[in-house]
Structure formats: structure tokens, C-alpha cells
Amino acid sequence: MAVAIEAERLVKKFGQHVVLDELSFTVDEGTVLGVLGPNGAGKTTAVKAVTGLCALDSGSARILGHSVSKESNVVKQLTGFSGQYAAVDEDLTTMENLVLVGRLYGHTKSDAQRRAHELVEAFDMGSYARKRVAQHSGGMRRRVDLACALVGTPKVLVLDEPTTGLDPSSRVSLWQMIQGLVGDGMTLLLTTQYLEEADVLADQILVMSKGRQVAHGAPEDLKGRLGGEQVVVELASTEADTARAAKVVEGILAGTGAQIATQDGQLSFRVPDASRWLASCVSALTADGISIGGLSVKAPTLDDVFFALTGDSMEPTEPDAQLAFITGGS
Ligand SMILES: Nc1ncnc2c1ncn2[C@@H]1O[C@H](COP(=O)(O)OP(=O)(O)OP(=O)(O)O)[C@@H](O)[C@H]1O
């Protein structure tokens, strides 16, 4: 598979602050790389650098083999970018925005109008076509913004936090649009603070912290690095039982490498293929006269991975951040 985006040892400093620290990654054609990391990790700077929107101190980037610094005109034709804040003109209608972008790409008026109509139809924006963007909801603005990024029919699309601030249903509908584009062969580089978003959209995930890569892999591989699912056993009774129960479970899991953590009336441990061990743990505990009040098995989330890798939480601070954790693999 050909490489569509290539970033090699990117370094960017703002004064003394090293924002990108020898960051390298590639994105294969037709695939999605999700760049994940907390506020200030350097995600926006990284994606701006590979689209030529941010000059580097050192390192190089190429889009479909073309140097971002030396062949910027070719790169502009090949790449669509949608930034964190919708860049559309609020005083213009959806159509006017799309036609304006087309004209900026050098399209004739009739070609720009034809492309604008195509995008309005593709993104189901018919009833908003003649409305000023100022009257649009946040979700519809992001949709217009995404459509603007596609006016030049790019082969590579870069989206910086495309759904931040959107309500759950707008977020899901934007995901569906993005999935449609990828289904049609688009290469996508996406930044997000939402673990669920990366999980849903990305083939590969790059986890960043302080301008560096802290992990890279398929969502399932990253989750697999934690050593399996987390099993929590709630005991029906006392503190004394907890230590005894831990000993019993330790005996069952001997040789698996699982570490058993205890709290009053609760044991928890991670073990690959948890279902294989559950029945024997439960029978051994019951045989020892220990009653079980509850049992749960939780698949690792990307947040767990991030915490394990950096000792830091990925959890964003926005009020709607909960969304990322409701279905995030748990
Ligand atoms: N133009 C600038 N001048 C000075 N510092 C900057 C500039 N742009 C970004 N930074 C700093 O670089 C660091 C990384 O910023 P960046 O926007 O790339 O992070 P991010 O991971 O995208 O964060 P967020 O999720 O908040 O958007 C931050 O500490 C930011 O304050």
C-alpha cells in the first residue's frame, strides 16, 4: 500500500517551548490515522505541519510523495484541511461559502457552483443551502466546514478535532459522513481528544504527549497492551474475606502474571481471555465459603492505555466529555 502522508522527525518550537519533538508517522493511502492526546500535546501543530500550514524548525513532511515545503502548490491541490474552529464566513450562505472556496481554488464561476451543488447534495444540506451560516447549528456549521475542505476534491483530508463541542447526534452524523468519505478511498488524518472517536474512525492510532509519540498501533493492539480485560469481583461480606479471597484467586491465576488489587470487599485484576478464568475463580471462592456479591468484566479502553503509558488522564474537560466514555469499549 502506498504511503499518503509521511512525517519525518518533525520539530517545532515556540521560543523555548518544544511543541513537536522529533515526531514521525506515516499514513497509508485509503486509511485513517487518529492522533490522540490531551490539550497541548501538539496534535494541531503536527497536522498543520504536514499540510504546510505551520513552518517547521526541522524535519520534513510529504503528501503523496510531494514535499510540503518545496511543492506547496501541489500539496494544496491534494489536501483538504478543516481546522478546530469552523472557518466558514458566517455572513454568507452555505452555497456562497462553497462557491467562494471554489473560486479561491481557481475554479470558474460555473464549475464552483456545480461543485457546491454536488457537496450540498452529498452532505444533505439542501434546506440550509440558501441560509446564512450564522443561522446554522454548531453541527451544521461543521458540516459546511467539512464540505469546504472537500471543494478541491482532495485525495488526503486532514481534520482537526472535527466534532469537538458537538452534541451526540451531530457527532454521530459527522462520523457517518467521514466514514462515507473513507469508504470512497479518502486518506484521513484526524486529531481528537475523544477516545471513542478514534476507536470508531481510525485504523491506526498515534497517541501523543508533550510533542512526542507515546504509542502507535491499531485500537485493538493498543488496548491489548494492557494485559487483557479488567475483572472486578465484589464480595458479599467482610474485610477479612478480601485477603482470603485474594489468596484463593492468586492460586487460580498463578503463572498468568495477573496482579490482584484489593479494596474492602473487592478484588480486581487484569487477565487476557478473562472468560477462561472466571468460572474457576468463582468455584474456588465458593468452595472456600466466600460469597460473591457481583462480578464484572471490563474491556480496556484507550483511556486506560493512555493512563498506563503516561500516568496521565486523557479525559477532556469539556462538559460533554462524558460521551467519550459512555461507550468507549466498556
Ligand atoms: N502560535 C503559537 N505560539 C506559541 N505557542 C503555541 C502556538 N501554537 C501552539 N502553541 C503551544 O503549543 C502547544 C501545543 O499546541 P497544539 O495546539 O498543537 O496542541 P493540541 O494537542 O492540538 O491541543 P488542543 O487539544 O488543546 O487543541 C501548546 O502548549 C500551545 O500553547
UniProtKB/TrEMBL annotation:
GO MF entries: ATP binding; ATP hydrolysis activity
Keyword ATP-binding set for record: yes
One Gene Ontology biological process: response to antibiotic
Topology in membrane: Peripheral membrane protein
Ranges of residues in domain ABC transporter: 5-235
Localization annotation: Cell membrane
Keywords: Antibiotic resistance, ATP-binding, Nucleotide-binding, Transport
GO cellular component terms, A-Z: plasma membrane
Name recorded for this polypeptide: ABC transporter domain-containing protein
Organism: Janibacter indicus
Lineage start: Bacteria, Bacillati, Actinomycetota, Actinomycetes, Micrococcales
